[in-house]
């Protein structure tokens, strides 16, 4: 595009800043700026692709990082294409090695996609969202088309994908069909004539395949925008259902509130950047308020209120806040505790507090016990050598932090 | 099969010896013996697969090594399946890197297959030959079937194929679709329920894929029989049209005769083993005759006669012999010279004689010149330092050996 670059207007600069907020990488920024400029001058919205694997339809806040970015781009006038990968999910894992990927029936795919879509629409603007199923063109490829598609990419480039490199080196089997899946995902971009594809940082390789294939097919290449993976409530690992550190978007307002209030003050800023729709200027203002003496708790409350309003309502957010404050005042155990699982029974109380995210360090855990602030099932703990057998306990630290902890 | 092995009859032992004659490898011999035994007791012929790439329909003696083995197995009562790989040859090389593999039209495939089949039937028994086209099942696979097929094999095992290993290590591109071709060839064996697949030693990897896939699909595994690649008339490289060291099966009787008489006495035994239908006992008898004083030339004449009879007629073979003998007697330059190409103009006469196969070594070439036995275009050569510019020359060594040599 360098030969005939359109000069960028102030609006395009602003749109570019919105697109880049919180992102990990935008490839290629200069090309994307040109796409934005062209869209502005022609009035033709950009086509922004989001691929969805319809095997696990439950959305947590980690998934919404990308959805939020989609929404921001929709608000700039662009079209989101919600691409449902039904072709591969109705095949499942044909090698049979991955028992967690059974083939889905077309009905299951439709049900899962609907569940996902209903949830996603708490974030997305339905009037600027197209839904497509990739079986539409993947089945039409046929066996000849599949060979022709596979001829567009080399084994060496495929091997550059991080997980393939590692598995090949460690002699963990890679089935040949696994090389076809990134190509099919890239072929979706060709069929959709996508201008931009979004994904988590772990999707970068696959998103780049789309760029390459569009070039092979003589199209203008899509840009790619990767978003960081949201860290879970434990402040350590990426948010994931299997890690128990997630906040589901259909959880009750009280549960969301409790979990959001339990995150560290540091993690709060990452959540503001990736989950809040407040502008970066507003967020900078909040940082300034804390420096001027505002309690970080109040800023965390504002974040929890914004998110609960999005997924429930402003009223539910207010009720959750009142409920939370009542607990502080009356020292009651709240009804709706965050549930946390930890391993290693019998587990020492200090380690348990740390692993459950109720203390940030061993010394903080020790200090809380010394100050008489730790209770297990209502009993104050004085013995720092206490080990808990497998079972479920209500653990309280100070007046505010509660969790239902299952020791395995 | 080990749990219920059928004892082998004398007939099965004989059949096994015929199958193994001249072969490079039979995998797995014990299983093949059981297949032969079962076929004998049930009267059900074995299904023997020969894959044919219908891009180059002209057959030379090198190709007939495998065809001869097929014929021997037909004579034992088994069925040959002549499998025409039209599916892949109508795709060509979709990566566009190999310009020598343009996609063929279905008509070109049919024409080439017919040409090949007509020639092959000079060796094969038509009444025990089935012809099949693999597009029959490969097109039916569809894109889903292709993915399922690809899931049956790992990248690591595919990389074990010698040429893939070398190309990957030397950074020579391998397109992903090249991993699909051996799988399709193996899938042909599944569809054909082949008992045995034949090929050159260079096909061993692909033939083994067929064994693996049959197992994956719950079938009894085919055995594989690889035949060595026939060395060309130069005694050095494998017979190949591009090397100019070949004998085409549609060449004239005189040309065949001349070329066969030009091979070395050592190479003659390899040709006897791989090209003659004489029994191994008869061939041992011929060796004995030479030890007892018979001129090797007479044994070579017998080989030439057998081969010309197969591809022309007994009468043509006799005429070629008479013509050849007349040339010896009268010192005439024969009409129908073998044509040989050599590179490296200007080329020294000694090197030319060796490379053209007119002398087995430098010392033999030197000796022939010293004895006044070498003529170029009729002129006796005395200067061993003579270098020949690019061009075509009639070169004669002694009374019997003539060739039209093109120096490039």
From TrEMBL, chains A, B:
Which biological process annotations from GO are given for this protein? tyrosyl-tRNA aminoacylation
Give the E.C. number(s): 6.1.1.1
Where does motif 'HIGH' region map?
Answer: 54-63
Q: Where is the RNA-binding S4 domain?
A: 347-408
Q: Which species is this record about?
A: Candidatus Paenalcaligenes intestinipullorum
What protein am I looking at? Tyrosine--tRNA ligase
Pfam families per the UniProt record, alphabetical:
S4, tRNA-synt_1b
Where does motif 'KMSKS' region map?
A: 238-242
Question: Matching PROSITE patterns, A to Z?
Answer: AA_TRNA_LIGASE_I (PS00178), S4 (PS50889)
- Per the record, the domain of life is Bacteria
Cellular location(s): Cytoplasm
Record key words, sorted: Aminoacyl-tRNA synthetase, ATP-binding, Cytoplasm, Ligase, Nucleotide-binding, Protein biosynthesis, RNA-binding
InterPro entries recorded: aa-tRNA-synth_I_CS (IPR001412), aa-tRNA-synth_Ic (IPR002305), Rossmann-like_a/b/a_fold (IPR014729), S4_RNA-bd (IPR002942), S4_RNA-bd_sf (IPR036986), Tyr-tRNA-ligase (IPR002307), Tyr-tRNA-ligase_bac-type (IPR024088), Tyr-tRNA-ligase_bac_2 (IPR024108)
- Supply one GO molecular-function term: tyrosine-tRNA ligase activity
What lineage is this protein's organism placed in? Bacteria, Pseudomonadati, Pseudomonadota, Betaproteobacteria, Burkholderiales
Assembly behavior: Homodimer.
* Cross-referenced Gene3D superfamilies: HUPs, RNA-binding S4 domain, Tyrosyl-Transfer RNA Synthetase
Q: Gene name?
A: tyrS
